[in-house]
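Can't paste images in this forum, so I'm doing it all in text. The chain is below; anyone willing to post the predicted structure tokens underneath?
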Amino acid sequence: MYCCGVTADKHRSKQLVIESIPIPLIEDDLFHRFEKLVQPPVKADSPFVLVQATLVGRFFAGKQIHYPKATFWGGFGHMGCCSLFAIQQVKSVSPKDRVDANPQD
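Text version of the structure:
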């Protein structure tokens, strides 16, 4: 997010389109609950939260990238390092507190 016109704004002025495919998002109560759980406020004494969710979306593998010592799929994310899963709908979401995953312990 430090370059290239990307912002941290969560709202889009128009529908997301990836590789000429429109990706409609259903922003219902389940989506907002999921979003709140995966982007919680950071607190030093808070346990990590494990979120179990059923998501509907589209997976974009990207393109095969060849390097002298490795071949992988990518083209999305920071410097094109990754594949992409674009969420279209949250079908279910269930948070579970994970005190045992807190690195402060």
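Residues 24-38+47-98 form one domain. Helices lie at 29-38.
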